[in-house]
Amino acid sequence: MPNLTPLTSAFEKLTLTAAIDILVVAVLLFQFIMIIRGRRAAHILSGLGVLVLAYLVSVWANLELLRAILSNLATYAGFALIVVFQSEIRRMLARIGRRGSFGLRARLQSRESTDEILLALGRLSERHVGGLIVLERDIGLRTFIESGVLIDAAQSRDLLLTIFEPGTALHDGAVIVQRDRISAAACFLPLSMNPTLSRKLGTRHRAAIGVTEETDCLSLVVSEETGRISVAAFGEIEMDVSLKRAGERIMQHFGRRWSAWSHGSGAAKSAPTERGAQAEEEWREAQE
């Protein structure tokens, strides 16, 4: 039998405080790994791992010149890591501090506001008009709101359709919605640099993903070429969804049970008749 004395001694020294300490560190490391997975930061960490391995080899093999160079580089490693990983660090801190992680989620003030968004998406999809709508949750989007044109108007499908009308001054960029009000239009959003994304995704879709990588918002996209609707959240995008699925994603994201277009909803009763057979079927199913 192997000698288990060291292992038994280690378990005897494991206190509740030490267990909590280990658990917190493990959670932080897991969050960091999930954030950098599939991104350029992962390749940078691989390069740093190679440098650390080279330093260990230089110490073991008495390679004084290589060891001295790597030792001097290590002095500035902390500052270099902050500069290189600034976006990843910001994203990790936002995820840790996000109130939604502890079950406190922002809610849309009314079902009608969701209906108005879905009606606008359906009309844009039917006409093959590109659009990008960002719904704010817990993390504020003021930085992106200030990059666009302030509106601060009650949310309505007519206003959304007017904003995205081709040829108008505000049709480019994103519309940002705070609760049930349209805060700004023609907003500039950061583009996702995730190398795993399909190269077929255009600027509008990459912007929709990019803003969800830095905040906990939800992005709704309508493709100008195909008219297909996509939903992005937490750095991931779901392509080619139906209006019903888009509504489900909105309700799930904001912590509300899906109950779209129920009986008595004014938005349901005013569904446009020219949406086509498939869209009309979705409306009927939602009302049943």
What is the topological layout?
Layout: H1 5-13, H2 16-36, H3 40-60, H4 64-75, H5 77-84, H6 86-97, H7 111-127, E1 131-135, H8 142-145, E2 149-154, H9 157-163, E3 174-178, E4 181-187, H10 203-214, E5 218-222, E6 229-233, E7 236-241, H11 243-253, H12 266-269, H13 277-287
Parallel strand pairs: 1-3
Antiparallel strand pairs: 1-5, 2-4, 3-4, 5-6, 6-7
Helix pairs in contact: 2-6, 3-4, 7-9, 7-11
Summarize the structure.
The protein has 288 residues and is α+β, with helices and mostly antiparallel strands.
The overall pLDDT average reads 76
Task: Tell me the β content.
Answer: 5-15%
CA-CA gap between termini: 69 Å
List low-pLDDT spans. Answer: 99-109, 257-288
- DSSP strand tally: 7
The chain-level structural class is alpha+beta
Task: Write down the Rg.
Answer: 25 Å
- The CATH architecture category of the largest domain equals 3-Layer(aba) Sandwich
> So how many helices?
13
The CATH homologous superfamily of the largest domain is named: DNA integrity scanning protein, DisA, N-terminal domain
User: Which sheet architecture does the biggest sheet show?
Assistant: 7 strands, mixed
The domain tally reads 2
Question: How are the strands of the largest sheet arranged?
Answer: 2-4-3-1-5-6-7
Give the proportion of residues in helices: 40-55%
CATH-defined fold name of the largest domain: YojJ-like (1
What would you note in describing this structure?
This protein has helices spanning 5-13, 16-36, 40-60, 64-75, 77-84, 86-97, 111-127, 142-145, 157-163, 203-214, 243-253, 266-269, 277-287, and strands spanning 131-135, 149-154, 174-178, 181-187, 218-222, 229-233, 236-241. It has 288 residues and is of the alpha+beta class. It has 2 domains: 5-97, no CATH class; 111-287, YojJ-like (1, CATH 3.40.1700.10. The chain has a 7-stranded mixed sheet, sandwiched between helices. The protein is elongated, with a radius of gyration of 25 Å.
